[in-house]
Hints:
The protein is mainly alpha-helical. It has helices at about 5-15, 20-45, 50-75, 85-95, 100-115, 130-135, 140-145, 150-155, 155-170, 180-200, 200-225, 240-250, 255-260, 270-275, 280-290, 300-310; strands spanning about 250-255, 295-300, 310-315, 320-325. The protein has one domain.
Amino acid sequence: MLRMREGKDLILATKPYAHEDRSKSWAYTLSTVLLLLASFSMALIPSPLPFRILGSLLTGLLLLRMFMLYHDFLHKAILKDSAIANVIFTIYGLYTLNPPSIWKRSHDYHHKHNSKLHTSSIGSFPIVTAEKFKSMTKWERTNYLFIRHPLTIAAGYIFAFTWGMCLLSLIRNPSKHWDSALALLFHYGIGASIYISFGGLAFILAFLIPAIISSGIGSYLFYAQHNFPATTFEEKDDWTYAKAAMESSSFMRMNPIMQWFTGNIGYHHIHHINALIPFYRLTEVQAAFPEFQQAKTTSLNPGEIWRCLQIKVWDANQKRMIKLSEI
């Protein structure tokens, strides 16, 4: 009978896969950049409207794919120590309101504290227990539910990135997160330049719609990968890194097209076991390890999305996430 590895044994077993193929990393990065520039040009330059709309939608999805490469770069999973890659991804991070300083700080914290009750909200969506929710003031409840509201998640461009990643980090620590100010100036400066130089339609198609699409999908993916019906949360004393990866991070099943645009981020349980595994090797790891094939799953099916969005608080007695109506 095959022994299922867990904990430290499982993490150590993935180490051989935590090495990039440098040529592949560059090929995926440069091809994504070139496709992004092409789709942006489609949306920007005057041509038949259906062609421009297609370019606008593709730009939003390619910004999403580029984010997954940026995410891996900051994890040092791809193109480590490359000065050229650093320039490319820094420009990308500033343009998409993901300045490197705040993203890396908050995301590294998220990996170290994923699914810990009381400390997992930094770099992630807030979570409270049912008992805590009952004791909160009306304002605290409203704020908590607003952050987790489906419309707030869909409007990630405003709430997650313009406000959360940039303005809030700048207000709290301007000297440490000065690149948040640079991101705001760079992003909205480009938007203003497009509006002035090419007009309102170009602004909507080449700038606004792609930003809304990439930010909205990105916000939901980040939410649902740790906020799904079967997820678990633990008190500090019962928490382990490997358990959090396997029990509190989903395997999000997607069709091949969305899997490509999201850079395999659906294999989130594997990513949380070992963040040094390049995105293009996650499917290889999934196939090689029976342990990862038993993961808790979710999907982009509308019914599954609705179930993920309905859950609001952690019930410590039932050991599951519950809806407001169940409190």
